[in-house]
Design goal:
Layout: H1 10-13, H2 20-31, H3 33-36, H4 46-58, H5 64-75, E1 80-81, E2 84-85, H6 97-116, H7 119-123, H8 134-148, H9 157-166, H10 179-184, H11 187-201
Antiparallel strand pairs: 1-2
Helix pairs in contact: 2-4, 2-5, 5-6, 8-9, 9-11
């Protein structure tokens, strides 16, 4: 589902940059709930714009790629803040500015620590905290589906699908050709739908 902006409230747009940079950032923010089990923004564009304003004011060096990387690290349990691992699970709540701020602050601290770390230590992967394997996301979905008889509403279907592809259970999703078709194409929804169909085919859910 593409993101369409309708707001004419100048207060929401204050500080936003222009052109494709805006579109890319808003599209990245629109995808963030899927990384942390939060409710999708849906047709409510106001929080997306407010989060974009917040990022550009408080984290001006963060671009869409960095933003997505930060939330991927949070989702895999690799971000620490104040000596504690950042809990990326919102338990189905809405994504808010405070949560985005915590993730980006933890990401910045991680980047600074890596830059200051001696090269030998940085290259030693054994000294780094292990990432949560993508299989965990699939196993969590499968476990909850078996327990409830329904597809869990707020889980990491994208990471779970990538794991199933690596195991040869699913095939990679191919994007459609053509500009309009690509704009309307929602790869996250497609991956979730395929997992749901797979669970139904296996008689795990109705």
């Amino acid at each position: 589902m593409g993101l369409t902006l309708h707001s004419d409230d100048s207060r929401l747009w204050k500080g936003l940059r222009k052109g494709d940079e805006v579109k890319a950032m808003l599209k990245a923010i629109d995808a963030l709930p899927f990384y942390i089990g939060a409710k999708p923004f849906g047709d409510d564009e106001t929080p997306i714009i407010m989060i974009a304003n917040f990022i550009w004011r408080r984290f001006p060096k963060v671009d869409p790629a960095v933003l997505v990387d930060a939330f991927e690290l949070a989702a895999s349990g690799d971000l620490m803040l104040d000596g504690k691992r950042v809990n990326a699970n919102t338990y189905g709540n809405r994504l808010d500015i405070e949560f985005v701020g915590r993730v980006l602050k933890a990401y910045q601290l991680r980047q600074r620590a890596e830059a200051a770390r001696p090269k030998l230590v940085q290259e030693n992967k054994l000294l780094e905290a292990p990432r949560v394997d993508k299989s965990w996301h699939w196993e969590t979905i499968l476990k909850e589906a078996k327990e409830t008889g329904q597809a869990p509403p707020f889980r990491q279907y994208v990471l779970a699908y990538d794991y199933l592809v690596s195991e040869g259970i699913m095939t990679p999703v191919k994007e459609p050709e053509g500009r309009r078709a690509k704009e309307a194409f929602d790869i996250r929804a497609v991956k979730k739908a395929r997992i749901v169909d797979y669970l139904k085919h296996q008689n795990i859910i109705q």
